[in-house]
Design brief:
This protein has three domains: 8-127, Rossmann fold, CATH 3.40.50.300; 147-292, Arc Repressor Mutant, subunit A, CATH 1.10.10; 308-384, no CATH class. Helix content is 42%, strand content 17%. It has 16 helices and 13 strands. The strands form three sheets. The protein has a six-stranded mixed beta sheet. Strands 2-3-4-1-5 form a five-stranded parallel beta sheet, with helices on both faces.
Length: 385
């Protein structure tokens, strides 16, 4: 497959000119190593997962770093957090030397602790998510955006099965002791069946026979590793009593489809989960768009106690909001915008844009439903941001 140009590449390359170090987080197999290697083709590379390499790091961290040829890529840095302090001493010894340390990791919380404690002000921080629709037309609801799935779509089912067993289960075991992997696999499928719903940990714990704290821990790990996207409720009430639970989505819709046993486009079209998967797809694409532009991944949803619900609220700065309703149908009807219009009428002190986002449809992109409301496909939505 032809190399896909990642939108984050330009921002990351500029950061290499401005900072001694860059730190790139994101889900496993999202393309972090490829992006770093393309950014600095001549950099040395070390994978911090090999037991022999980790033994050398722990026995003699100074000696390990002395042997590196700079610039250097240190991959899966969360496995050797003790290196952060040693890297800091080298940066502080030559602060004018930029772009010498490129670090990546797939478990964001441990990695961020190391950066916060040792590299604050010395490293530019980025997150790389799976490939977006802005980066490749091959990204779909069914297959998602993992590079290896896009390269070999016929082997998608095998790839996702291996991904769950090789990466997700290992990441969870690295954080907590799981004695029954079969229960964890059931948990993943159960979470997939709750896509687009408000998070209810008790509802997840009961059918699995595990405790709510265990569910909370597993969800936290999936969020840390870039597998799950928890969208919080919008914090302004607009004079309404609001629901305060987050909504749950998968970062990659292909993984959600795999966990739900959806293996073809026809099966997806018939699935009762189509609407929720499309909603999650829209959420993930908005987040990708923002992080690829170097922005905070601000995304919210809204629901009040009277049942008024809007899928997504996207802050646009200076009291400007974009309200988004996701509809998996291919034809958009005026009634689809009703909730957007009701909430917009309550947000009187904001400049509000209203968008119904749909799959490629008979309704042309940019069609006005009612004054101030647009019908757009996903690509059209992202161009408006």
């Amino acid at each position: 497959m032809r190399a896909i140009e990642r939108r984050l590449a330009t921002t990351l390359t500029q950061a290499l000119r401005d900072f001694p170090a860059v730190v790139l987080t994101g889900p496993r197999r999202a393309g972090k190593t490829t992006l770093l290697r393309r950014a600095v083709p001549g950099a040395s590379y070390t994978l911090l997962e090999d037991p022999d390499v980790l033994a050398r790091v722990r026995a003699d961290p100074r000696g390990f770093l002395d042997e590196l040829r700079l610039p250097a890529i240190l991959d899966e840095m969360q496995n050797a957090p003790e290196l952060f302090a040693w890297v800091r001493t080298r940066i502080d010894a030559a602060p004018s030397r930029k772009g010498r340390w490129l670090m990546s990791g797939s478990q964001e919380a441990p990695l961020m602790r190391g950066v916060t404690e040792s590299l604050a002000g010395r490293a530019a921080l980025f997150q790389l998510l799976p490939i977006s629709v802005e980066e490749s037309p091959k990204v779909t609801l069914l297959r998602g955006g993992f590079p290896e799935v896009l390269a070999r779509p016929a082997a998608a089912s095998t790839w996702f099965r291996s991904y769950v067993q090789t990466y997700l289960e290992r990441d969870v075991r690295a954080v907590t002791d799981i004695r029954d992997l079969a229960t964890f696999r059931r948990f993943l499928s159960l979470v997939a069946s709750r896509v687009g719903q408000m998070l209810n940990k008790t509802d997840l714990a009961a059918p699995l026979g595990v405790s709510v704290p265990t569910i909370a821990q597993w969800l936290s790990i999936l969020e840390i590793t870039g597998t799950l996207l928890l969208v919080p409720p919008y914090f302004e009430s607009f004079g309404k009593r609001i629901v305060k639970s987050p909504k749950l989505y998968f970062v990659d819709p292909g993984l959600a489809c795999h966990l739900l046993g959806i293996e073809s486009a026809a099966a997806l079209d018939r699935s009762p989960f189509l609407g929720a998967i499309f909603e999650g797809f829209v959420a993930a694409e908005i987040v990708k768009h923002r992080v690829n532009a170097g922005k905070r991944p601000e995304l919210y949803w809204f629901r009040d106690q009277q049942g008024l619900e809007v899928d997504f609220v996207v802050p646009q700065g200076e009291r400007r909001l974009m309200l988004v309703e996701a509809k998996a149908a291919r034809t958009v009807m005026p009634a689809d915008a009703a909730s957007l219009e009701r909430l917009a009428s309550a947000a009187t002190d904001h400049d509000v844009e209203r968008v119904v986002v749909h799959r490629r449809a008979t309704t042309a992109a940019g069609t006005t439903l009612r004054p101030g409301t647009r019908a757009l496909d996903v690509e059209g939505l992202l161009r408006r941001m």
